[in-house]
Design goal:
872 residues, alpha+beta, six-stranded antiparallel sheet, five-stranded antiparallel sheet, 18 strands, 64% helix
């Protein structure tokens, strides 16, 4: 029984030991395989991170190639990279799903990658829409590089974490391998120990078996060798432990560097986000106030400033007389944040000259950075003395530039010493450029808005000026419209008689306007108490004397002191809070008609060149309105006087003609009685004399009739009896009357056939016109000449032409012959005298009947007078 037990123990003991050792070895091997898979997983994460960076670089390379060349094939790697980035990021997020720290880094990486890709998209779209010049400035801003640096930093952090995990897992794998070896070795040792124990039992059971003893001795020898090996392995384990401690120290240092890199990456990402927010906000800003809001909301936080200001370059105040202005420029602080009110008011406006950080930055077109109080005192000792005690140590001044022009500057103050690294300097320079673009855009928007308002105001002013010829009323309306749109005060002064050369001129103030009636009364009392000094070489006296504008964009207290007559006058001027003033003359036709004054006070508004141009335009329109109104008044007076004179003339002509006709009729009657022999026999010589008397009497009577007819026509007392008249009958009756004169002179005479033509006219007036035309033709046509009456009709009109072969009429006299009392040169009329009224009366009669009378003539070839009448 004992022997059987020993045999069972001898067999089962080693088997059980081998089973336990095998189980432990299998567990160690499995754990080693898990460690190997972890190592492979970590390598996959690192490779995926490298792929993300490669895709971003491909996208940036494709975008740069397209921006530089405009060729679409450069966009193929860009498009592929755009599609692969999100896939790679998703794979990276999946591989690191069990690591929250890595997931946060990938969140940062995704934001930076998407922002960079969005900017690349906008650059490609801008290049495609507007060309290379539109993206040139954006290409060199460094924003893209900052974003790619942020992406690389985030990827470095991810890879550094994975490399750290890789080293840990490799170390764990090595440790598992060693553990496995140790388990196997230990198992062997245990097995050997069990075997030794069994052997001892067997030796004890079979002391006599020498072979067993020798075998046991051999086994002991082997165990001794294994023990030696085990001692060596222990020594190796101790060395490995020391090496592991060194590795841990190196890992701790790498972790510290990784934390610093992560902090830098986070700062770069935050700065990039702030820059993007600033750029976006500035692109939407339409006013300087909105630009300042973006700067103080985003930029100050990005740089960690405690206070900041926005300053714009302005023209110097100076003494502005007439058109001259001080060329010295100044800086005006238009917005602050964080500074105390006394400090803000102290530096509200100062000269743009070297010696201050902000001025130096603007003059040099480069940021000026002061990192500590020691640097303040070394670089700007005077300014440092002024700013001691304010609590600020560091200062950053950034010029606001647009192209070659400097628009102003940004200043940031820090209550601690600062170290401005390259990233911060690049951020500040980019901020100045973006702010310059935004201010230029805001100025363009403001100029366009003011242009619209100016056009609307000028249109309204033109309407007011054209509404009445009472220029005093219209000027008051324009002055009321100008307040408060153009000024807080508006005054208009008009010279009573600008044609009189007198000095001082006599002025009438037709308007003085302010929204507060009490201030209007104060302004009138001040003007009465302190009248204009006409001997001065400035102000209103200079404007009216020279006819030039007075433009003072900023009124200083020194100007008020220089212009005040006494202390009370100075107190009133200061109380009115004068800010800016424009005085422009009212000029028309070389005369100074007055002056328009625009002034800002309590509103604080300051005039610029655009306001001066608008004031000049308004003054020009007002001057034209005043001049036109005065010319109209003068013309009306002259017309009234002329109408009175014309009425007196007509009355005189009618009276004179009536008084002359009575004795002329008596002369004609007595001449006829004497010719009949009633007073006794008449000799041949006496009959010839009586004939001369009768001819002269008829000539004078015709002249008197012409004068009477002209007086009636001019006075509008001619009545027209319009009727339908057959043209053939009218021409026949006229031909019968003129035929004897034609026959006596031996002229050829032809009358066109007017059968079937009916005109609508006054038959007596038409006959009078035709007889006058035929009489002139017969009178001025030499013997053997021809007189022809022509007829043409069409389009509701009938033209009757009287053509002669007389001397003709010079071209420059063709219209004058229709004026009253105008006759041609005596050499052309061949001694045929007259009153010069026949043609004037004939044209007026023709037009009174709805027709007209015109003439065509060639000197030496004769003339054609054409009477046009309406066709019935």
């Amino acid at each position: 029984m004992l022997r059987r037990t020993r045999r069972v123990v001898a067999v089962a003991g080693p088997l059980l030991t081998v089973a336990v050792v095998a189980a432990l070895a299998l567990d160690a091997v499995e754990r080693g395989r898990v460690a190997e898979r972890s190592v492979a997983h970590t390598r996959d994460v690192i490779e995926t991170a490298d792929e993300v960076l490669a895709r971003l670089v491909d996208a940036e390379t494709g975008e740069r190639g397209y921006v530089m060349t405009g060729r679409e094939e450069y966009l193929e790697p860009y498009v592929r990279a755009r599609e692969d980035v999100d896939r790679s990021l998703a794979e990276l997020r999946r591989l690191t799903a069990d690591n929250p720290e890595q997931q946060r880094r990938i969140d940062v990486l995704e934001r930076v990658a998407h922002v960079r890709l969005a900017r690349l998209d906008s650059m490609v779209a801008l290049r495609r829409a507007s060309g290379f010049d539109a993206v040139r400035e954006l290409t060199v801003t460094g924003v893209g590089k900052a974003m790619m640096d942020s992406a690389r930093a985030a990827l470095r952090a991810v890879k550094a974490e994975e490399r750290s995990l890789l080293e840990d897992r490799r170390a764990a794998a090595r440790w598992r391998t060693r553990v496995t070896i140790a388990v196997i070795v230990l198992g062997l040792l245990v097995t050997l120990a069990v075997a030794l124990a069994i052997n001892r039992m067997l030796l004890w059971a079979a002391q006599r078996q020498e072979d067993a003893a020798r075998e046991l001795a051999e086994r002991n020898a082997r165990l001794a060798e294994q023990a030696t090996e085990l001692e060596q392995q222990v020594e190796e384990a101790q060395a490995l432990g020391e090496e592991l401690e060194q590795t841990n120290e190196e890992l701790e240092r790498a972790n510290e560097q990784l934390q610093l890199a992560a902090a830098d990456t986070a700062a770069a990402g935050e700065r990039a986000r702030r820059l993007l927010a600033v750029t976006t906000g500035l692109s939407e800003a339409l006013t300087a106030e909105q630009v300042a809001d973006v700067i103080f909301r985003e930029a100050m936080t990005a740089v960690g400033a405690d206070a900041g200001s926005l300053a714009l370059v302005r023209a110097g105040a100076g003494e502005a007389h007439g058109e001259s202005r001080d060329p010295v420029r100044e800086l005006e602080i238009v917005r602050t944040h964080g500074y105390s009110r006394p400090l803000t008011e102290r530096y509200r406006r100062f000269p743009l000259s070297p010696g201050r950080p902000l001025s130096d930055a603007i003059i040099a077109h480069a940021p000026r950075l002061v990192e500590s109080l020691e640097e303040w005192r070394r670089a700007y000792p005077v300014v440092a003395d002024e700013t001691d005690g304010m609590g600020y140590e560091a200062f950053a001044a950034v010029p606001i530039v647009s192209g070659e022009h400097t628009l102003g500057g940004l200043s940031f103050s820090f209550r601690r010493a600062m170290r401005f690294d390259d990233a911060t300097r690049l951020f500040l320079a980019t901020l100045g450029e973006q702010c310059g673009l935004a201010l230029e855009r805001a100025r363009a928007y403001e100029a366009e808005r003011r242009s619209r308002e100016a056009s609307a105001f000028l249109a309204e002013a033109s309407h007011l000026l054209a509404a009445s010829l009472d220029y005093e009323t219209t000027l008051r309306a324009v002055a009321e419209a100008a307040v408060p749109r153009l000024a807080d005060w508006c005054a208009v002064d008009v010279v009573r008689d600008p044609t009189v050369a007198e000095w001082p001129p006599r002025l009438d103030r037709v308007a003085i306007v302010h929204q507060d009636p009490e201030k209007v009364a104060l302004g009138k009392s001040v003007a009465d108490r302190y009248p204009t000094d006409w001997s001065a070489d400035v102000g209103m006296a200079a404007v009216l004397r020279r006819g030039t504008s007075l433009f003072v964009p900023r009124i200083t207290d020194e100007m008020l002191v220089g212009g005040a007559r006494d202390a009370e006058h100075l107190a009133i001027l200061r109380a009115l809070q004068f800010s800016s003033i424009i005085v422009v003359p009212l000029l028309a036709r070389g005369l100074t008609l007055g002056a328009l004054t625009l002034c800002t006070t309590e509103s604080g508004r300051r005039y610029d060149e655009a306001d001066l141009a608008l004031a000049r335009d308004l003054a020009q329109r007002a001057a034209v309105a005043v001049d036109n109104a005065r010319l109209h008044a003068t013309a009306q007076a002259a017309r009234t006087q002329a109408e009175g004179a014309n009425e007196a003339k007509s009355h005189f002509l009618a009276t004179m003609s009536h008084e002359l006709r009575t004795p002329l009729n008596a002369i004609g009657g007595y001449a006829e009685l004497m010719e009949m022999g009633i007073r006794g026999p008449v000799t041949a010589e006496q009959r010839e004399d009586l004939a001369r008397i009768q001819r002269s009497q008829r000539h004078l009577l015709a002249l008197i009739n012409d004068i009477l007819n002209f007086a009636k026509v001019e006075a509008g007392r001619v009545e027209y009896q319009l009727a339908e008249v057959r043209l053939a009958e009218l021409l026949a009756s006229v031909g019968e009357v003129i035929a004897p004169q034609v026959s006596v002179k031996g002229l050829g005479f032809e009358v066109a056939d007017g059968d079937g033509v009916v005109v609508r006219t006054d038959p007596e007036k038409a006959r009078q016109v035709l007889l006058n035309l035929l009489g002139n033709a017969v009178k001025f046509t030499p013997r053997a000449g021809r007189v022809v009456v022509e007829v043409a009709h069409g389009a509701g009109r009938v033209a009757v032409g009287v053509r002669d072969t007389g001397p003709g009429i010079p071209a420059d006299q063709l219209e004058r012959i229709f004026e009253p009392f105008v006759q041609l040169d005596r050499s052309l009329t061949s001694g045929h005298a007259g009153a010069g009224l026949g043609l004037a009366i004939s044209r007026d009669l023709a037009r009174g009947m709805g027709g007209d009378l015109t003439v065509e003539s060639v000197p030496g070839d004769g003339s054609v007078f054409t009477l046009t009448l309406p066709r019935a």
